[in-house]
Amino acid sequence: MNMKNFVLAGIAGGITDFLLGWVLYGIVFYDFFGGGEPNMAMITGGCFSFGFLMSYILVGLAGITSFAKGARAGVGIGILTGLMSNFFMRGMEAEPNWQQFGVDLIICVIIGALVGGVVGAVNGKLSKTSEA
């Protein structure tokens, strides 16, 4: 695995996740999910963890070098991570909120697709510059 591509694509993925999360969770669906004061340090850590997870899979394991292929892979990863996190979160509720489950799963798929696309595109761009 090209470590430079992994790190830079992971950072780009983390920034993308953070910005999309801010728009979707922090603005568009803020009231829907109950509002509240976010812990930005924890959110930032989660966003960069997801960016590096995507980078590990797409750059390190799959060698994806385009936005389109990264986005397609990101949809699958978004579905799986969205299901996992929602089942864990809803497992702590006496009466799970299935509407929030569904909306959050859709958001996870959108974010997964775009983060995957960015990671794939960054890896592709860096791969081309290292070949030249």
In total, the number of domains comes to 1
Mean pLDDT across all amino acids? 96
Distance between the termini: 18 Å
Low-confidence stretches: none
Listing every helix as H and every strand as E from the N terminus to the C terminus, the arrangement reads: HHHH
The oligomeric status of these chains comes to: single chain
How many β strands by DSSP? 0
How would the global form be characterised? elongated
Radius of gyration: 15 Å
Kindly estimate the percentage of residues that lie in beta strands according to DSSP: under 5%
Helix content: over 70%
Structural class given helices, strands, pairing? mainly alpha
Discrete helix count: 4
Main sheet: strands, sense, barrel: none
Which helices and strands, and how do they pair?
Elements: H1 3-28, H2 40-61, H3 67-90, H4 98-131
Helix pairs in contact: 1-2, 1-4, 2-4, 3-4
Question: How would you describe this structure to a colleague?
Answer:
The chain has one domain. The chain has four helices and no strands. Helix 1 runs antiparallel to helix 4. The protein is elongated, with a radius of gyration of 15 Å. The chain starts with a helix and ends with a helix. The mean pLDDT is 96.
